[in-house]
Amino acid sequence: MSVIPGLEQQNQRYAAAFEEQQLPTAPQLKLTVVTCMDSRIDVFAVLGLENGQAHVIRNAGGVVTADVIRSLAISQRKLGTREIILIHHTQCGMLGITDDGFRAELQEATGQAPTFAIESFTDLDANVRQSIARVRTSPFIEHTDSIHGYVYDVDTGALRRVEE
Ligand code: ZN
């Protein structure tokens, strides 16, 4: 039983009530948010953002991978963003796996070892600091003077700043 037909119906209602926005492609707040794919984080609501104000880059864990660097490079160099917020969160699914364990699981199930790093972590604050460091030391990221890291509590909705 697929949820897709219901989603299509919901979009029809959404589009019917949609007020044409004609927003520019470049985010108005010149902000990029990097965070986890977790279903409990409504990034726009958490930060009080509106459509058109910020880029949001998401993956499992909100980890700064090569592809996140690619998106950040485009965000800054082609679409004018200057500030970066990194958000990890409590109860992250990445806290429950290990790189070696998941790699072995994939290899056993498929016969292929993944070519990508799993990037699991056990310490949220340490991983936020590592993510900041990866962005800061990337030669492709132009603006590194305003990078802020946080841990989001999925039970309270509160952000806690992680000092570098
Ligand atoms: Zn997560």
Automatic annotation (TrEMBL):
One of its GO terms (molecular function) is zinc ion binding. Zn(2+) binds at residues 36, 38, 89, 92. Its EC number is 4.2.1.1. CDD domains: beta_CA_cladeD. It catalyses: hydrogencarbonate + H(+) = CO2 + H2O. Pfam families: Pro_CA. It is an enzyme of class 4 (lyase). InterPro entries: Carbonic_anhydrase (IPR001765), Carbonic_anhydrase_sf (IPR036874). Keywords: Lyase, Metal-binding, Zinc. Binds 1 zinc ion per subunit. Its cofactor is Zn(2+). It comes from the Bacteria. Catalyzes the reversible hydration of carbon dioxide to form bicarbonate. Belongs to the beta-class carbonic anhydrase family. This is carbonic anhydrase. It comes from Paraconexibacter sp. AEG42_29. The gene is mtcA1_1.
